[in-house]
Specification:
Two copies of one chain form a homodimer.
Chain A: H1 9-33, H2 36-43, H3 47-53, H4 57-68, H5 86-101, H6 104-119, H7 121-148, H8 158-175, H9 182-196
């Protein structure tokens, strides 16, 4: 018998406990050693409770990361802020990202996910489909709005733009090649945007 | 008794065999499971031969990566090409990097190094000091020459510039978020340089 998720408060609390346990554990033991059994024990629920909601540890972990990304509405993600000023909005987004990556609660699970992706092409494809592509589309939507507002060159390649804006933060965090500060985030936005703005006529 | 490295041809062949074995093995088993003993066996030399030249597996591996980077002159690295045209030179460098990252011989050991760095702050510090910083300095030297030639803004932050130019390639390779092509390398250079060029007066 298939049981639909219980919308009660208790069910919601279990769900949150499972997602939190998955993030804690993946940071501690890595993706390979992460098990549904271990997550169930840490969350204080039965394995069947987890299997009722998630078919695999991969799907559970991705929901956990979506939660971490500030989204708990089953996969739908909020757009980037749009105050009408692209530079201000991007600086806000990148500085928030910097603050999250510097938060020890996020640091270990995010590192675990990123290194598993590097070695596991199937997980990388899942990551691309479930996390990178939807997030990238939201970023490109904000950049398209900036193009309509004349703040970004009409012919800018938006995939390259996303990579130039968001890639350096991720690299510096992963490789610890320099301090990951709000100032650095601001400089990345300023330099990248100078290259992306409409050329003077 | 301390024995200085033997400059004979046989010694040079052993050294190359050891470096090649280290790269092969780290790609196969990862940095954690990499052992001097395993490298010695694979290279057909005694463990003492390795310890005579390298104090640790870390120092051996970094020499192996420096070899991979096309440099076998004990740590000294060649500068970036300088034809006088920054865009042409950077496109050449980034397209060469793309070709190397797409080469299966480099792919696995480089992934192993990058993921170990992500989880091991001590190795990250060693990587920063022995590989990233010297390479970064060479890149910045080329950018400084471009500043003197009026091809780059005087006030460009050169660390941010290096990150914008080289980071996106590394990310796309590690995360497989899109095809790593020479065309992509060219677009990254063009977009980043538009942001870094001197502003029109």
């Amino acid at each position: 018998m298939k049981v639909a998720p219980d919308p009660s408060r208790r069910s919601h609390a279990s769900r949150r406990a499972i997602l939190a346990a998955a993030l804690d554990l993946v940071g501690e033991v890595g993706y390979t050693k992460l098990s549904i059994e271990g997550i169930a024990t840490a969350a204080g629920v039965g394995k069947q409770t987890i299997y009722r909601w998630w078919p695999s540890k991969g799907s559970l972990l991705f929901d956990a990361f979506l939660t971490l990304a500030g989204d708990e509405q089953d996969g739908a993600t909020a757009g980037l802020p749009d105050t009408g000023d692209l530079e201000t909005d991007l600086k806000l987004v990148l500085r928030t990202t910097v603050a999250e990556l510097n938060d020890p609660r996020y640091d270990l699970p995010m590192r675990a996910l990123h290194t598993e992706i590097v070695h596991d092409p199937a997980l990388a494809a899942d990551y691309a489909k479930r996390l990178d592509e939807p997030m990238r589309e939201l970023k490109k939507e904000r950049l398209r709005a900036a193009q309509r507002a004349g703040q970004l060159a009409e012919d800018a390649n938006l995939d390259v733009a996303v990579d130039l804006l968001f890639g350096p933060i991720l690299n510096r965090w992963l490789q610890r090649t320099g301090p990951l500060t709000p100032e650095y985030a601001g400089q990345v936005v300023e330099t990248a945007l100078r290259g992306l703005r409409p050329r003077e006529p």
